[in-house]
Protein 1
Amino acid sequence: MKIALITGANKGIGFETAKQLAQLGYFVYVGSRDKTRGLEAISKLKDTGISNVELIEIDVTDINSIKQAKQELETKIEVLDVLVNNAAIGGGSDQGFSTGKMENLRNVFETNFFGAVQTTQQFIPLLQKSKGPVIVNVSSELGSLTVHSSTLNPNYAIYDTYSSSKTALNAFTVMLANELRDANFKINSVSPGYTATDLNQHRGTQTVEQGAKFIVKYATLGIDGPTGGFFREEEIPW
Ligand SMILES: NC(=O)c1ccc[n+]([C@@H]2O[C@H](COP(=O)([O-])OP(=O)(O)OC[C@H]3O[C@@H](n4cnc5c(N)ncnc54)[C@H](OP(=O)(O)O)[C@@H]3O)[C@@H](O)[C@H]2O)c1
């Protein structure tokens, strides 16, 4: 049975990704920074008949929490096959580079970029033991500089703080994929698309089932799959 870890999986797209991967037969560690919310998620999954899931407490902004999660996993598993860096925050309404508060910019990068980097660094040794290690960095079309370079694009110049954190995450994807190409890692950025969750006060036009489907596709890549790309239904321009 392949084993996956998803950060921020107690709700939204991460929760649905956990559900879909578990339904495909993966054992899924459901990451949650809050124990109570995590246990609620596990009990919701179990109510649907899914038993191959377990809570792992992990706050991606806290290196001690990540190390503790890693130590806990090391007592239970010898190999990790899939890491989904899903946890993220939106950054609220303070989004401009010309006017935004540095504190907000730092907080958003702390979760959406540094959080993914430091989580990945801690789990690489367990992933390296897999025959086909896979990392999905959950990104967004808003992280595409092509999108923000065309005044005609409907997403042009919106959510600058959040968007730039996803641009940085995309750079991480490309560079880490290059570093680990010879070790057979498949590392991609995947956008779920505009999905109704707490992140956008449920204004997204897709369901979580539709959004998670793209993440699951790249989380279950085989050894012939792409690495260092940016995808949703199709490849997304950087
Ligand atoms: N929804 C969309 O339209 C959309 C579009 C493109 C990309 N995305 C991306 O999809 C991913 C999932 O977003 P979503 O829409 O499902 O949002 P969501 O419903 O707000 O879920 C975000 C998850 O991240 C967790 N999280 C936040 N900070 C964390 C931290 N420091 N450590 C660990 N977990 C943390 C949250 O935990 P708590 O419950 O404890 O807050 C929650 O479980 C994100 O990467 C987002 O950027 C979403």
Protein 2
Amino acid sequence: MLDSYKGSQPIAYKILKNAIINDKCSHAYLIETGGFYDSFDFVMSFIKSLLCPYNKTQKEDCGNCHQCEIIDSGNFPEIEIIEPDGQWIKKDQLQNLQKEFNTKALIGNKRVYIIKKADRLNKAAANSILKFLEEPDNNIVAILITDNIYNVLSTIRSRCQILNLKPTNIAKENISWLEKIKQILFNQKKELLDFEEIDLKIQKVIDFVCYYEKNHLNTILYIGKIWNDYIKTKEEIDMSFEIMINYYKDVLNYILNKPLEIFETSNEIKMIAEKNSQTEICRKINVLVELKQLIKYNINQSLLMDKLIMRLEEVI
Ligand SMILES: [Zn+2]
């Protein structure tokens, strides 16, 4: 419920909580996620607090009445979620929504629609919804979500109350390194991911770094087995480079006697720290950052990995 974000999102929490208590909700909110990993859950918590029939009769959020439970199950008829169909949000998705919302709410008196990735509203789709945003029925609340408000058309932006979420302060939270790296890498897409598979891939990337640190140039001979079998798509390769960069950064933190940012001190990190000077780790991080740039040009994966090992070994 909304109250659980009192600490992590103090400003947005206060604004929304006040709006609910005073029954002065804006008709349209544009929420900039700011890299806050839990942003969709934040939005759903707000909606629950808004729609719950007990929201004003008690001080604390409810969260467990019949209505709150239906909202949690995803079957509440007065909430509509719109997200891009392919690359863009299409005009007819919005027209269907408006048609549907022309009828009265069946339960309670408020209806809410969420537009995920509001920056994917192109002009035609946006135009079809401007009027709807502008002449709001008192009982309809729109919530638009985006990573960056400046990618949202200004005509939309100007019709919404803007709320910026605070980025997650990863270092301060007491969570495992695996959770931290997932939050860094997969900000918004959290609900779409198969986490077990990701855990395996992250582990494989770290295994690769350790294997390389022990076997150097010979790693090239085994790259198929230790890398290509697990890391396949462009996104995965990009993610893997990000993990390696962060891993070496934490090795550097270890060498400098600073607290590690993402990973935990392990025998592997100690081993790599012993084998490398500070300058050597910095050089390796630079190589990774530089080669990561090539991923977007669709470079062949085996070629990229050969290049990486050779560059790390300073063969080329
Ligand atoms: Zn409730």
